[in-house]
Amino acid sequence: MFSFPNPVNEVAARVVAAGVVLLSVVTIAADLPWLTAVIAYGFLARVAAGPRFSPLGLLATRVIAPRLGEPKPVPGPPKRFAQAMGAAMSLAALVLVIVGATTAAYIVLGGLAAAAFLEAAFALCLGCKIFALGMRLGLVPEEVCAECNDIWARAGAA
């Protein structure tokens, strides 16, 4: 029940990222700080169990992504790490909202929206890039993502 998919459909991941952008922009533009809790819940749910308990994850994987063409499988561990980074940022924003620092919370959400936009629009996953750096530096054991090793070995050989 509490596991993360591997592989992940990159199409669905990009749809989720677009949803995060939308929710973050609405939160900031409409000055609805309570939506920060919704964003944080979504990230925590996706880190814990993939899309299983995330309304946005379910919408992306079961409704939208299947209508956008063939799935594009990518390794799951880097995507989970990226979701964990989103969880940390959205929880930080939520804490800021709770203590009354709404402007600071919106700045954090703006950074989160920017990172999610890069994923949604260009398939540029900043969390995945940091995960790759962690593997290259030996901070992430190779067995965490054997597929990643194969992908990066092929990319280095090209």
From TrEMBL:
Statement: the UniProt record of this protein carries the keyword Membrane: yes
Domain of life: Bacteria
Organism placement in taxonomy: Bacteria, Bacillati, Actinomycetota, Actinomycetes, Micromonosporales
Pfam families on file: DUF4395 (PF14340)
InterPro entries per the UniProt record, alphabetical: DUF4395 (IPR025508)
Positions of the DUF4395 domain: 8-136
Listed transmembrane segments: 20-44, 81-99, 105-126
Keyword match Protein transport: no
UniProt keyword terms in alphabetical order: Membrane, Transmembrane, Transmembrane helix
Name of the protein in question: DUF4395 domain-containing protein
Species the sequence originates in: Actinorhabdospora filicis
